[in-house]
Design goal:
Structural class: alpha+beta
Number of strands: 9
Largest sheet: 4 strands, antiparallel
Oligomer: single chain
Strand order of the largest sheet: 2-1-4-3
Radius of gyration: 33 Å
């Protein structure tokens, strides 16, 4: 029973009882509560239901105190990635469902503000983690592609968008790593990592908008990349036998004819590899000896790869 419940008793029964730690049941009876027991019981039951809601909210909030995200350096990129466990997503779903349940309770009125704020915090955290995971996945895929000078040269518009997106991404991850509310555990340069409490970082609308902006750039970059690959395949249809990753491996090393070597079997039936590609004299001037399956033959052709292996038509 809180002060508001004692005030409610006074409003409904006219009996004034001031709560204090020394208040006893006998003192309540002396005030005449026995004569209005139906009203008192109803108010007490409501207080019990409110207390249960309050306890549920408190337990959910306490559960998040031990839920962390791990921020760790990613390869030699100079930035970090976030490790998000399935337990975090599952707890968010469970707590969102439980919060929605108590928000429908007829006894929620006294705690409506707290319930609404907690529900908003959970939804915001879910949105941030979803956007974060999607951004991280796409960045990890595109990062090795756009470290290639050949790709940057061939896709200047997408390259510019990628650089803009990556600046935002690096800033976000640095902020997470430098979060002052958590401790850092440094073992050595390769395994340095930091733990971040989910509810200290994620319920942030500014962070969500930044991640959404990154994802918008990433979608545009992916579309431009797909259009570029389709253009290359339409010029040389045998590229359709290669996956996007395999074709990008070739295009990102356009001046290196050896990049084609692992993919010859997919592009040309019965051709295993090119045995002599003119190395080490001039890697862009190929006078090939082609090994077929099971034979080897010298081709009387000259291939100039100065404009890239893709433009040389394999």
């Amino acid at each position: 029973m809180k002060d508001r419940h004692w005030n409610q008793i006074q409003e409904e029964t006219g009996i004034k009882i001031e709560y204090s730690p020394t208040l006893t049941f006998a003192m309540c009876l002396e005030k005449g509560l026995a004569d209005v027991q139906d009203e008192v019981i109803k108010i007490a039951e409501g207080a019990g239901k409110e207390y249960a809601i309050e306890e549920t909210l408190g337990k959910m909030q306490a559960d998040w105190e031990n839920i962390i995200l791990e921020v760790t350096p990613y390869k030699n990129t100079g930035t970090y990635i976030m490790k998000i466990s399935d337990d975090v997503s599952q707890m968010l779903d469970d707590h969102a469902a439980l919060t929605q349940t108590i928000s429908f309770s007829p006894f929620r009125a006294a705690l409506e503000k707290e319930i609404s704020e907690w529900e908003t915090q959970l939804h915001l955290t879910t949105d941030v983690l979803d956007a974060w995971a999607e951004c991280q996945k796409q960045w990890m895929y595109l990062e090795p592609i756009f470290t290639s000078e050949d790709i940057n040269r061939q896709l200047p518009v997408e390259s510019k968008k990628y650089k803009t997106m990556e600046r935002n991404w690096r800033r976000i991850m640095k902020n997470a790593f430098d979060n002052p509310k958590v401790g850092m555990f440094s073992f050595n340069h390769e395994t340095e990592w930091i733990v971040v409490q989910v509810m200290d970082v994620c319920p942030d609308r500014t962070l969500l908008e930044s991640l959404k902006e990154c994802n918008t750039y990433l979608e545009q970059i992916q579309k431009g990349l797909a259009d570029y690959l389709e253009t290359k395949r339409s010029v040389f249809p045998r590229f359709y036998f290669l996956s996007d990753d395999e074709l990008l491996e070739i295009l990102s090393q356009a001046k290196n004819p050896l990049a084609v070597q692992p993919h010859l079997r997919k592009c040309f039936e019965n051709i295993q590899k090119v045995l002599d590609m003119g190395f080490p004299c001039d890697p862009t001037d190929i006078k090939p000896i082609v090994q077929f399956v099971p034979h080897t033959a010298k081709l009387c052709i000259h291939i100039d790869c100065n404009d890239g292996v893709d433009d040389a038509g394999m």
